[in-house]
């Protein structure tokens, strides 16, 4: 048994018991579905060093089963076209990173992409947005650096004397993009910078199942289905 790094072990503890080997009770097709679900939903969560360990565990769990990654013909082609038009060399691993992010965002409204400066985080995010736009799903990205402003400038302030409310940068963007719409579109707020407990605490109720941003004036704004949150952070993920 390989020694597991802390975060790898933590992820694997979340794997439900019914995904354990089931012998003759499962057909080959069911094994393929289970293996792909376990592999593809968890692979994007691991750091580079943990990927071989995780794939080794998958191989032990499903011996002799070799399932290539699912290819989305239209989406993969759009991603490759976007990267080529932007002057990047087409690398299968880079294209797959965009696909991994696409798959992750199908089931989650908050996603963090972590990596060192120059590691390709922005390329993955922009390629995803441009590929979706090419396929008719117009995707708009609203980028802000929360570390470049105070919490008041970010979320807004309520004047204690007049009770007048002044929006912050984030609260203004959040309200605008979450207006009801019948358009076929996606809108993402990208927090470009390391996560700091000072400002991210107010986002907890947005990132959980409540999907509500509560402002100091008592206003509550719900994150709509066409919107999502993205965090782009360094390898540490957080800063003091």
UniProtKB/TrEMBL annotation:
GO terms for molecular function: ATP binding; dynein intermediate chain binding; dynein light intermediate chain binding. One of its GO terms (biological process) is microtubule-based movement. It comes from the Eukaryota. InterPro entries: AAA_6, DHC, Dynein_AAA1S, P-loop_NTPase. GO terms for cellular component: dynein complex. Residues 29-122 form the Dynein heavy chain hydrolytic ATP-binding dynein motor region domain. This is Dynein heavy chain hydrolytic ATP-binding dynein motor region domain-containing protein. It comes from Marmota monax.
């Amino acid at each position: 048994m390989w020694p597991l790094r802390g975060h790898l072990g933590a992820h694997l503890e979340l794997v439900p018991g019914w995904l354990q080997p089931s012998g003759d009770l499962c057909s080959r097709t069911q094994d393929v579905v289970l293996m792909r679900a376990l592999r593809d939903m968890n692979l994007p969560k691991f750091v580079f060093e943990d990927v071989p360990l995780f794939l080794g565990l998958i191989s032990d769990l499903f011996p002799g089963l070799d399932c290539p990654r699912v290819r989305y013909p239209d989406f993969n082609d759009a991603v490759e076209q976007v990267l080529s038009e932007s002057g990047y060399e087409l690398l299968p691993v880079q294209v797959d990173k965009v696909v991994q992010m696409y798959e992750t965002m199908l089931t989650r409204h908050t996603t963090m992409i972590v990596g060192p400066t120059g590691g390709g985080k922005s390329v993955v995010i922009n390629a995803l947005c441009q590929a979706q736009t090419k396929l008719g799903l117009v995707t708009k990205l609203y980028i802000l650096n929360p570390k470049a402003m105070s919490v008041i400038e970010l979320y807004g302030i309520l004047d204690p004397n007049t009770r007048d409310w002044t929006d912050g940068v984030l609260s203004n963007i959040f309200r605008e993009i979450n207006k009801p719409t019948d358009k076929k579109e996606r809108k993402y707020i990208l927090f470009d910078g390391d996560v700091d407990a000072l400002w991210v605490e107010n986002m907890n109720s947005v990132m959980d199942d409540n999907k509500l941003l509560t402002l100091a004036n008592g206003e509550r704004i719900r994150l709509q289905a066409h919107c999502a949150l993205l965090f782009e952070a360094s390898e540490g993920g957080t800063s003091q």
